[in-house]
Amino acid sequence: MMDKSLEKIFRYIDGEMNSAEMELFQVELKSNSELNKMYLSQLNIHRALSQVPTSTAPAHLADNVMSMVTKKKFSTEKFNSFSGLKNIAIGAVASVVITIALGFIFSNETVTGYSMGSVGRYLDGMPDVATMTNGLYAYSKYICISLIVPLLIILDGYLQKRNAKSYSISEN
Amino acid sequence: MVDYYKMMHSDDQLITMILNGDDSSFRILMEKYQNYMYSVCLTILKTKNEAEEATQDTFVKIYRSLDKYNSDSKFSSWAYKIAYRTSLDYIRKRKPTVDLDVVDYADHGVADSSDQEIQSKEVSLQILNAVNQLPGDEAGLIRMFYLEEMSIKELVEASGLSLSNVKVKLYRARKKLADVISTQYPEIESYFEIA
User: Fold this and answer.
1) Cβ distance of A53 and B124 shorter than 8 Å
2) Based on the domain organization, do B94 and B2 belong to the same domain?
3) How many domains is chain B built from?
4) ipTM of this model?
5) Which of A45, A52, A66 sits opposite B27 (nearest CB)?
6) B56 vs A64: CB contact, 8 Å cut-off?
7) Is the pLDDT of residue B30 over 70?
8) Are B127 and A49 in contact (CB under 8 A)?
9) Structural domain boundaries, residue B135
């Protein structure tokens, strides 16, 4: 009995009754003091509930979420691209190719036509004694090699930093 | 620094900006809704630490799935849905032996207020403590229905339950709440003078 009354009261308060039901319920409210008492009590609860303020979230919550979201982006980007490893690998391959090419270009052998001998000497790591006579030419390939690798590493570092900056959160 | 210009944008405009890579708009959206989401999580979980974690998770989930948000529905309903389900997940994952440090709304403070304000705040505290005695899912529905003024239709969307299920659960929750109030806080039943 009480459940039925309560259900009616909720439907009335929520505005879920049609006009015929509402009229009937209003008549019932006037004639049934027990129902009227229950209705007033529910109306009070309804009003009190509607006035409860919202709880305040901790002040650092937004900062925490932003840092979590940003961190996730960084790691995803690095994991997906392997940009550092890829660039170093490309750099290594490029330096080997350039070194071989320089070996052909600057070796004394190029004067009389190059042969596999000049490449072989390069791979041994030392210039042929004969090419030493050519002074700067003989050493230029080693200078180039020693410069290319660190330059590529610096370039790679710069590109990664620039990439990371574009993902950082702007406060504005 | 808060961008007051962006604060004037609608939710949908902010979402478009976020999807175009403007993360500062997400902060604005979050600051707009964080208290509401935190309130729902706190009502369901009843502990501040868990509520804070659940709210953070909610916003991370919102951020990651913003591209799936359908602008035909209200953003707030969609966000509440994530908060409600995330909080229920936290309850499911709880270890049964965990001793909960249940929030005491009495520490919400009633100092420096007029008599009427104090009385009103006391009633609010009593209501919150009464809601706190309901099971998490029912307390969440009550919170969203009354405090966030969501319609039954919005509750269906937020809870992921069917219309009949929502109605039954909400009815049970309100009945339980009425029982708690009539036995523990009877003064609330006559707080407002109703002609």
Assistant:
1) yes
2) yes
3) 2
4) 0.74
5) A66
6) yes
7) yes
8) yes
9) 105-195
